[in-house]
Amino acid sequence: MNNQITMKLNADPLIMQALRxxxxxxxxxxxxxxxxxxxxxxxxxxxxDGIIAGLWxxxxxxxxxxxxxxxxxxxxxxxxxxxxxxxxxxxGNIRVLLxxxxxxxxxxxxxxxxxxYTNSIAKLLEGSKTKLLDTxxxxxxxxxxEKYSVKVGGGHNHRxxxxxxxxxxxxxxxxxxxxxxxxxxAKDYASFVRKIEVEVETLDMxxxxxxxxxxxxxxxxxxxxxxxxxxxxxxxxxxxECSGNVTKENIETIIDLGVDYVSSGALTHSAPxxxxxxxxxxxVS
Length: 285
Hints:
The chain has about 280 residues and is an alpha/beta fold. Helix content is about 40%, strand content about 20%. The strands form three sheets. The chain has a six-stranded parallel β-sheet with strand order 6-11-10-9-8-7. The protein has a four-stranded antiparallel β-sheet with strand order 3-5-1-12, covered by helices on one side. Strands 2-4 form a two-stranded antiparallel sheet.
């Protein structure tokens, strides 16, 4: 994500949209207390332990407001940080530092919270064959940032969007008429290089998906014993994914199953933010 082309094409418009949301005509408070330009600097301080993510977005907020602002960082995305740690300094026009503060911190807090929560779950899967995946349950207009944060935290990305992969869920199956018909139609429509994943909820659906040639079978909201039997039925003929209300509290019950993947919407929709602040703003000559 540090690729400058990728950032300008995908992230910059979203960051600008967030800034426009926060500053419709002017920052009236800043303009009141800072009528004239004055350079200054402010400290970026971590207020709780965690995994930092989104430093490039944090920096970009200020750069888009004023390309003369400089952000000096003492940590990198993916680093473990601790409460009270000085992570960097932002230097430049105080008016810009004040106006960009909230948007910059919103991104950094949200992204670091996701990376921290993801990391706590990924650690529980260490030593197993199971890879931790995110989902499309992301905040609108935040997907590029949230999925990046999952990777920083040690997770992996499922499909990025609807154009990125075939996943036949219950309503797709209902629309097609059956799992067999849905898979056949998907194979006929999509390029041969596309894998076809099917969401199943019962053992009968598992059998049908295997016989119809699914590449990946998602075991959705099944009990432990039913998933164990499903994996026996699949017998290596398709990759397996476990899904459905997977959280930090229950993921350890899945490890012994030996599924290839476990996907969790909680990584992005339930991760608490990480407490981070800009403090000690002062003028410099």
